[in-house]
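Translate structure to sequence.
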């Protein structure tokens, strides 16, 4: 049979073209039929506002996508890191319906940003963008302090029209007088923030018993102190007297609640559960307790 084919070059050519076309259809054309399926849209995901869109353009202009991806892959480690509190929180097509062009990227010199929205307060971003090392000492991200310059808003309306995004005159007016940094931070805070399951995951209570295994354990206290200076001081201050986040020197809540806040994060306070793990979070709670309760 193969012998026969080799002796008939025209038929061989036609058959191999057919095989390649089937491959093309499966990998390229087939996805088009389901990628535009309206049921894959995510209701909470909204188009960009004028300010967010300008921020997105600055992100593209500066090539942030050369160091940052914007897609959470369906791998256990990716989901644990970028979609805390969920098991299937990887990126879905519906998250990108307003992204033209998409900014998935292919390099992760820095972390993925698909879900950066809401992870930190605005104030953290302003400091981090201007001088990354002030927030993350070992960061090799370049500083962008020059973005405090005024934003060029002369084309904003035309951009919104070209993309067909809805906008109000008030939103357009609000862009005037903003800095490039304002726009970029508005964009970052939008990323992934409107996916409904994120709110559900944040509101769900932690499973398992919330009992501190380390009460008054001296080595846990020391480790807790170190963990706090490494992970919390940038926002709560070196002495925990407050900064971007509130003071932690007079926490009067039950330990279980404090554990839960640190584990799951909440409104501008990042989640530490999936990166530090239960034991370390309890050590932190133990240290915080020693700072507040007894003294
Ligand atoms: C040379 C590579 C590089 C470039 C370019 C770069 N970054 Fe980063 N970025 C990093 C690294 C590394 C980190 C992790 C350390 C840190 O938080 O500073 C990071 C962290 C971040 C974080 C915090 C992520 C998190 O989950 O903690 C944000 C937000 C961010 N970058 C935004 C930007 C934006 C916006 C731009 C473009 C204006 C940009 N980066 C350009 C390397 C880069
Ligand atoms: C990126 C900044 C940031 C970092 C880093 C951070 N926090 Fe927070 N934290 C906040 C903000 C903002 C709030 C206020 C959240 C709110 O109002 O819901 C907060 C709130 C809290 C609260 C609740 C305070 C209260 O009065 O109810 C606790 C406890 C807390 N943080 C502990 C920690 C610990 C422990 C760490 C380190 C493991 C940490 N935080 C790291 C920003 C941060």
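Result:
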């Amino acid at each position: 049979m193969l012998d026969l084919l080799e002796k008939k070059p025209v038929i061989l050519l036609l058959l191999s073209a057919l095989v390649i076309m089937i491959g093309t259809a499966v990998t390229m054309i087939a996805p088009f039929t389901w990628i535009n399926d309206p049921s894959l849209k995510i209701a909470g995901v909204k188009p960009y506002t004028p300010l967010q869109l300008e921020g997105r353009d600055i992100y593209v202009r500066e090539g942030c996508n050369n160091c940052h991806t914007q897609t959470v892959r369906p791998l256990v480690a990716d989901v644990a890191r970028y979609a805390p509190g969920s098991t299937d929180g990887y990126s879905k097509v519906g998250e990108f319906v307003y992204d033209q062009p998409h900014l998935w990227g292919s390099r992760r010199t820095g972390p993925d940003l698909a879900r950066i929205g809401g992870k930190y307060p605005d104030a953290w971003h302003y400091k981090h963008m201007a001088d990354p090392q002030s927030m993350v000492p070992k960061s090799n991200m370049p500083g962008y302090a020059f973005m405090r310059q005024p934003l060029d808003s002369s084309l904003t309306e035309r951009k919104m029209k070209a993309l067909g995004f809805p906008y109000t005159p008030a939103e357009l007016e609000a862009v005037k007088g903003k800095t490039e940094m304002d726009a970029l931070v508005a964009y970052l805070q939008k990323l992934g923030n409107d996916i409904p399951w994120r709110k559900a995951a944040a509101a769900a209570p932690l499973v398992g018993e919330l009992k501190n295994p380390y009460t008054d354990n001296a080595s846990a206290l020391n480790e807790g102190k170190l963990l706090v200076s490494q992970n919390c001081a940038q926002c709560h201050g070196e002495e925990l007297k407050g900064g971007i986040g509130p003071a932690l020197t007079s926490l009067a809540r039950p330990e279980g609640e404090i554990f839960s806040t640190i584990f799951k994060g909440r409104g501008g306070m990042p989640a530490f559960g999936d990166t530090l793990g239960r034991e370390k979070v309890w050590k932190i709670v133990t240290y915080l307790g020693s700072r507040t309760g007894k003294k």
